[in-house]
């Protein structure tokens, strides 16, 4: 039986979003800047397997970048159908 230590999840951190026409994207080159829709002190969104689970702030860890969690988002319980085929 697998333990929780063996389970891998994909963590993504989203700083912000932008919308632009394809022709503008195709003209971008090295050094181009994409203007995001957030302020510099806004929380980033933290996703686990494409599900929003927390918010956080970007922090510098020496030469690396990290995220400090500021809020864990509660998920409403999922409704699962009752089993009628015997014990679990």
TrEMBL record:
Membrane topology: Peripheral membrane protein
GO MF annotations, alphabetized: cytoskeletal motor activity
Domain of life: Bacteria
Keyword hit for Ribonucleoprotein: no
Localization, UniProt: Cell membrane
Xref: Pfam families: FliMN_C
GO BP term, pick one: bacterial-type flagellum-dependent cell motility
InterPro entries the record matches: FliN-like_C, FliN/MopA/SpaO, FliN_T3SS_HrcQb, SpoA-like_sf
SUPFAM superfamilies given in the database record: Surface presentation of antigens (SPOA) (SSF101801)
Sorted UniProt keywords: Cell membrane, Cell projection, Chemotaxis, Cilium, Flagellar rotation, Flagellum, Membrane
Similarity annotation: Belongs to the FliN/MopA/SpaO family.
Descriptive protein name: Flagellar motor switch protein FliN
Organism the protein comes from: Roseibium suaedae
């Amino acid at each position: 039986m697998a333990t929780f230590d063996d389970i891998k999840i994909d963590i993504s951190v989203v700083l912000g979003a932008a919308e632009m026409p394809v022709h503008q994207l195709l003209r971008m080159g090295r050094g181009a800047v994409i203007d995001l829709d957030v302020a510099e002190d806004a929380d980033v969104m933290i996703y686990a397997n494409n599900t929003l689970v927390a918010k956080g702030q970007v922090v510098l860890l020496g030469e690396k970048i990290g995220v400090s969690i500021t809020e864990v988002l509660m998920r409403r319980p999922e409704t699962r159908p009752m089993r009628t085929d015997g014990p679990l």
